């Protein structure tokens, strides 16, 4: 019994593998697989890359924005504190406060009341429009605490130990500003504390500074201004930076000085050491705070003058929520794409598979030798086009088989015509040779010269001499052409040849100079009353052969030169006329490259020079 189980599993595996192999040979199955893979894999890759890039972008933008925001908040707090510092200096060194501080211990009771009234009136005038300052206290050296501004019926008081610490610290700073944060636990119990708790103003900041004597600079006491923390907190709450984002600040001792959420931190209370360590962590990577089951990104900025650290706490859930939304969107797109793939595959199977099977069967029949099979087709899609092409192909094959004999006969006729085309120039050349002999016998020297020049040019047309000939032979062809043109209408034509001896044996393309001379005759020498002159020169310059043809004709304008050089070549075999300059340019560049070609220099009604530059080649270089 036991050995049968693996055998059964093996048979099942082989059966499914065989089914897969048979499916793999079907076009619709392969196309379905390619469509699914071609759709899902790029989408998955795009989703992964886009999610990673978007996550990095979100974190980067959040970091940049939050860092700038924390810096802005710290600068705003610093600006407000600077304003409060000016106010405290203005009060501390006013005449009434200075006189009260200097003479308090020497005043009688009535004088003391008068001095207090003057100081309170002066401070009240200064703080009329500054609602953020709720109380002003003056601590003198003998321990007296004078209440100079605020609610006189229920005076704000800190517990003695906090007052002593605050005063001693202010004296130790020698007149520099100091700020302390206090909560309800730091205050004296009483009616004022109850009122502040009801009004939600029990948390406060105490702005303190030592007062010095203006005449002598001695420390007279400490001025303390009670500042409602809502002055800062309200402005922080008004900054809309996202759901759950909080601001807080703490001093160098880890005491919370400002906070927008009392459930996280309490004003005036020390931050737990482990939480403070997380807030103080610095590094290139992002800083995190884990508190009460929540995770926050930490962005901070310093207020150096006070030793405060302003912190912006951004819940990581905000960023993760955006990334999760993006991932869900990509998954929805992927699911939709897969559903569309399934629908497309189903439609493809129904629309294209059946016509494809009929076409394949017909191809198999044709492959077996049946060329009269034809597939019925009413479709206009690609398979219909393939079916029509297949039917047309079979029809053309049948026609080709029927026309083989006639095509063979036509081929033999074409070969005979080509042979005759080769024979005709030879026949014409031989006939001209007979005419030349007759002209010599009859002493017709002009006809003899004309026929000699014409025979030489006819040899060029017949391909005598190959594609490359010596410059000496090319000059001979030019001379023959000029001789013929003299008989036509250029009897007074003067052509001079200045050929460097070393250049005479150089190889040049056949008929490379004759078109230039023809161009000079037909287009250049049209000025009346001037002898027609053409100068043909050839010199070797380094490794290049320079050929020039100069005429004294009407010249060529710059626009015409540019038009000639930009015209596409239309070279047409070995004709004696009609070979334009662009054709010569095209021949040279096809043979030697774009570094070689024509150059035209002309002054209208004076001269035209056409220069050809080609590399030096000789017979032994072929």
Number of helices: 16
With strands numbered from the N-terminus, the spatial order across the biggest sheet is 2-1-5-4-3
Distance between the termini: 89 Å
User: CATH superfamily membership of the domain at 61-318, which one?
Assistant: PAS domain
The total of beta strands comes to 17
The major sheet is characterized as: 5 strands, antiparallel
What characteristic shape results from the CA principal axes?
elongated
| Low-pLDDT stretches | 414-424, 571-579
Helical content stands at: 40-55%
CATH topology of the domain at 61-318, by name, is Beta-Lactamase
Assembly status? single chain
Topology:
Elements: H1 4-24, H2 27-92, H3 95-103, H4 109-126, E1 133-140, E2 145-149, H5 160-172, E3 178-182, H6 191-199, E4 204-212, E5 219-228, H7 230-237, E6 246-250, E7 256-259, H8 273-280, E8 287-291, E9 294-303, E10 308-315, H9 316-351, H10 353-367, H11 382-441, H12 445-461, E11 468-470, H13 471-488, E12 494-499, E13 507-509, H14 514-524, E14 533-541, E15 544-551, H15 558-566, H16 581-592, E16 597-603, E17 607-615
Parallel strand pairs: 12-14
Antiparallel strand pairs: 1-2, 1-5, 3-4, 4-5, 6-7, 6-10, 8-9, 9-10, 11-13, 14-15, 15-17, 16-17
Helix pairs in contact: 2-9, 3-4, 10-11, 11-12, 12-13
